[in-house]
Amino acid sequence: MSSPVSASAxxxxxxxxxxxxxxxxxxxxxDELREIQARAIGAILDGTGDVVIAAATAAGKTEAAFLPxxxxxxxxxxxxxxxxxxxxxxxxxxxQFRRLDELCEAMEIPVVKWHGDASQAEKRKAxxxxxxxxxxxxxxxxxxxxxxxxxxxxLFGSAEFIVVDELHAFLQGPxxxxxxxxxxxxxxxxxxxxxxxxxxxTIGDMSQAMAWLRPSDPSNVDLLVxxxxxxxxxxxxxxxxxxxxxxxxxxxxGASQDAEAxxxxxxxxxxxxxxxxxxxTNNLVFGGSRRTVESAADRLRRRCEKAGVPNEFYxxxxxxxxxxxxDLEIRLKDGGLxxxxxxxxxxxxxxxxxxxxxxxxxxxxxxxxxxxQRLGRTGRRPGTPSILRVYVREPYVDTRSGILDQLRPxxxxxxxxxxxxxxxxxxxxxxxxxxxxxxxHQMLSVIAERGGIRPKPLFxxxxxxxxxxxxxxxxxxxxxxxxxSSEVRLIEQAPDGILMLGPEGRRSxxxxxxxxxxxxxxxxx
Length: 525
Fold this sequence. Notes:
This protein is an alpha/beta fold. It has helices at residues 7-15, 19-28, 35-46, 61-73, 90-106, 120-128, 138-147, 149-156, 173-188, 206-213, 266-278, 290-307, 322-334, 368-375, 403-406, 409-422, 435-450, 455-462, 473-483, 503-511; strands at residues 51-54, 83-86, 111-114, 133-136, 161-164, 195-200, 222-225, 233-241, 283-286, 313-316, 340-343, 358-362, 386-394, 491-493, 499-501. The protein has three domains: 7-225, Rossmann fold; 233-422, Rossmann fold, CATH 3.40.50; 435-521, Orthogonal Bundle (Arc Repressor Mutant, subunit A), CATH 1.10.10.10. The relative contact order is 0.11.
């Protein structure tokens, strides 16, 4: 699926770019285009279909997509956004805006950030005169479709490209169903459906990615997989046994019923090792839960105080303020001060924080895709290894312990994940049990957007090839009857057959039009 690109081919790709882009590349001091960038230029400029670009973290996927897209749309005169970039995270949008803003300014192409924290003045300006590129979250697309459907058509209806970043994050779960449905709805309002470009570093099943990106014609999706050597991997799995009769594996340091004998737990020993080995460098430590992140960060701060040295260890998770998170991201990227972020999955996706020396994981990894994404943060510079430390916590075992505890399941899982990692395996996306609930959300959203719609057009818009392909007409009719029942009252049907929002449907749409899933699961969106 991937082949090297010769120097002459790469040079030929460069020559095909818009003159202002070529000037920008020279100003950046680039010696050459990367292999995946040269191939993407040919695929996007020569083709008419969709493209999946799969390459490692920091391999230049954003430029691989936008250099040819901007070349094709540079002289566009039509109103509306020429390209829509969809990202799962606000922080990633902010980061990509910084990467694209200078290039787009040089080309005199507007680019706007569009999410809950973005400038309202810039959004109003884009609504009044939409053009260029919009970097937007799925929730903002949903809100625009539902609350300002007329503006949505003007903004999205003539887009020539839709770029979906971190594609692997959308291949399963309610958010993936939601985004796939939004893309169908944008296609429905367009005279000509936009070409789709998916970007990802960790895809387990390429055919799944192609089918998600264009469900109606996955065979017409051009798949570009970067060919790149993997850095040396230095790996350590360290196991720690909790004390007997432990009730709280993340309790505050020194907390104990017996004040004279503070109980040391596995996390204390783990933080001793982290403090000893990570000080003086930039690192990421993934804690799994916010509680673990806060407990570990506090322990490491205390160790800095006790040693009389500046603190280098800071928490990062979705419940922290935007200012604290962004300050830590800037500090990591700047690299002027040694910094270790103790984080949940908030720093897993492609926010640019530069290269870190090592990655640590507190707790057994549960996903190959996630672990690969995290490991991609380290070993980026030529000649430097990727360093991974896995800290496993196991319960105390005695004669009363159950068979599962005696088998040390966290240790077994860690070893199994590492073996699969070395074998190059990434698990494919599994089925999404939230199909029906997400479909209900989209049904209400479309009815709110259109002010009413008949059952068949609603089925044709949402079902068929795509996220709700498993729902047939009989299932859909049964679901409509249930939603319109006297007990549910989410929808109601007028005498002429038009479906409208019922009392509960109106109440639901007024409460939240942005997302079919809990905001607690999508912090930072």
